[in-house]
Amino acid sequence: MAAPSLPARMGLAALHLLPPERAHHLALMALKLGFISPGPALPDADRALLGTEIGGLRLAHPLGLAGGFDKNCVTPAALLGLGFSSVEIGGVTPLPQPGNPRPRLFRLAADRAIINRMGFNNDGARRIAERLARIHRPFPGKIGVNLGANKESAERIADYLAGLEIFWPIADFLTLNISSPNTPGLRALESGEGLQEFFARMGPVQAELARIHGRRPVFLKFSPDLTDSARAGIVTPLLRAGADSLIDGLILTNTTLDRPEGLRSARRGEAGGLSGPPLRLRAREALMEMDAALEGRLPIIAAGGIDSGAEAWARIRAGASALQIYTALVYVGPAIIPAILRDLAARLRADGFTRLSDAIGIDRRFRPAAGFLPRPDLSIAPPGS
Fold first, then answer.
1. What angle in degrees, to the nearest 10, is found between the helix axes of 228-243 and 192-213?
2. What CA–CA distance (Å, rounded) separates 323 from 304?
3. What is the pLDDT along the chain (385 residues), one digit of tens a residue?
């Protein structure tokens, strides 16, 4: 992977001297004010090779930015300008909420990881929708919205339906984030019964929105912490929802509450969701297991610990149609985007592929046709492994 330029390295080093949430805010402001230059354009040959489609969403290449970086739609166009093919804003809740008390964001520098317990802090759906509707888009790419539920809501499903109604007319895609570990009780929606109720109530709303505004891809974002029995219990409702066009794919995975052995950072005991390389093997495992259980019938966006072309290639081979990163952007900066894409393109060519779509899920033949795999060793793997 190419190293960032000296000014870029100095900028990252300066940001990492600041408290994480303050540094994050300054990075967003720098993007908004144009202090961070757009990334290099993909060569034509790589564009032809790396184009992908998921749930009807056509992307110039598979690498997108996960939800949580631009929570309030401050600068999604500039993030697309860095080279992402898609940017997911949010998580957004119907009502504004401050999130959890600070400090709530922690760097685990020795592990190149992050722990967050932000708690869906955001300006609320109405204000964020107004910003999104006004966005000027000088760069190609898709802007989606990550939808959450308010912490104090007595009706979590109703919160998601409200988010769909507000953002459906203006978003390119929508993600139902039912797996944040920082809103108590939210992950109950990941159960088989929870999903069945969700889909039953979502169907009429989605059908009406699609009738008025046209189709929008809808993705479900899951936790990496589901047990084998829990994963098995959601396969049938997921396949039915896919067949009924209620959902167009999955995002695997969100952050983990587990703490793998081998974490070195002093902050490893902080409460919240862990992301970055320590999540890599667990996220890869979740992708392989769900892809096998669903027999490839629902497309998947892979997320969690992707920080290299090698890992991107592993996720594509395992069944991912697209990818999202976040933590790698924090530690490497925007240079991570062209580095991953160049390496991924080189690996595709080296293995004889002329388009990415032909490589998606090619490792399925080495796995059981369905069911769940034995859990691998979840100790920390070195970056890029």
1. 30
2. 9
3. 445 554 565 578 889 999 999 999 999 999 999 999 999 999 999 999 999 999 999 999 999 999 999 999 999 999 999 999 999 999 999 999 999 999 999 999 999 999 999 999 999 999 999 999 999 999 999 999 999 999 999 999 999 999 999 999 999 999 999 999 999 999 999 999 999 999 999 999 999 999 999 999 999 999 999 999 999 999 999 999 999 999 999 999 999 999 999 999 999 999 999 999 999 999 999 999 999 999 999 999 999 999 999 999 999 999 999 999 999 999 999 999 999 999 999 999 999 999 999 999 999 866 655 445 444 344 444 444 4
pTM of the model: 0.93
Token pair belonging to 181: 């570990």
CATH homologous superfamily for 39-366? Aldolase class I (3.20.20.70)
**Catalytic residue of the set 85, 179, 180, 275:** 180
Gap between the Cα atoms of 124 and 150, Å rounded: 9
Structure token digits, residue 327? 């933590």
Q: Where are the beta strands (DSSP E) in the chain?
A: 52-54, 57-59, 63-65, 86-92, 105-108, 113-116, 142-147, 173-177, 218-222, 249-252, 273-275, 300-303, 320-325
Task: Count CB atoms within 10 A of the CB of residue 26.
Answer: 15
Distance CA 113, CA 126 (A): 32
**DSSP label of 256:** B
373 C-beta neighbours (distance < 10 Å), count: 13
Q: How many Cα atoms occupy the beta-carbon half-sphere of 48 within 13 Å?
A: 6
180 in catalytic set: yes
In one-letter notation, the amino acid at residue 285 is: E
Q: For the chain, give every domain's residue range.
A: 39-366
